[in-house]
Amino acid sequence: SHPEVVIPHVHHVSRALDEACGGGGGSGKRRPAPALARAAAALLSRARPGGNAGTAASEGVAAPALPADHPAFAALARVLSPGSALPGRSWYPAAEQALAALYALHPDPEGAASDVVRSFAAVAFPEGDTTSSGVGTAHLARFLFVLGEVGLRHLVYAEGMARAVRRARVARDRRAADASEAAAAKGVTHGEEAELAAALGQGAVAEDTNLDN
């Protein structure tokens, strides 16, 4: 789905995700729908390609992050909670997509993901219990899954942010080099230091462009 199609309907998709996880308000407790939860979370993850590193020049559109109190995050929390209503193995694919959506939409995905990991760790390793008997297999499996998935998502996130910095640097240096060349063409010079800076800028443009290819 294209982000332009998804963004206007984020509230509707969030409500569908909430209902798929057993929410929905006064009509009583709903039966969880894992397939719908996974599909809704996947759709949310496509609303903002590149997350905080997205730009108009990157794939998709550069949309602002959602506010931290947006209903989408309450819906995602129904999946990314140790007490999620999604049963058994059906939880895992929904959680994978929910984490992708968290990194795509949240203004501070690192902090939000850390909270998720801590919540699963608290359940997998109860405070004050120093024996292995207190560790439930199901809780441990979900904790390890979340830990690994967050680690993977954060590597992708960090690389995306590094690419965004390089893109900004390339654009800045290209503008400086173009301005210097235009000034030189008009016979206007700014001294040896400016010419050296322009030359270094052109080299940086080429180097950073090669890193992103």
**Count of strand segments:** 0
What's the order of the H and E elements? Answer: HHHHHHHH
User: How would the global form be characterised?
Assistant: elongated
Mean of the pLDDT scores? 81
Instruction: Report the radius of gyration as a whole number of Å.
Output: 23 Å
Question: What percent strand?
Answer: under 5%
If helices are DSSP runs of H or I spanning 4 or more residues, what is the number of helices?
A: 8
Query: How far apart are the first and last residues' alpha carbons, in Å?
Result: 26 Å
Structural class: mainly alpha
Q: Describe the main β-sheet briefly.
A: none
* Amount of helix: 55-70%
Overview of the molecule:
About 2% of the residues have low confidence. It contains eight helices and no strands. It has 213 residues and is an all-alpha fold. Helix 6 packs antiparallel against helix 7.
Please render the helix and strand layout as text:
Blueprint: H1 3-6, H2 10-20, H3 34-45, H4 71-79, H5 91-105, H6 109-124, H7 137-185, H8 191-212
Helix pairs in contact: 2-3, 2-4, 3-5, 4-5, 5-6, 5-7, 6-7, 7-8
Briefly summarize what is shown.
The protein is an all-alpha fold and 213 residues long. It is built from eight helices and no strands.
Key features of this structure:
mainly alpha
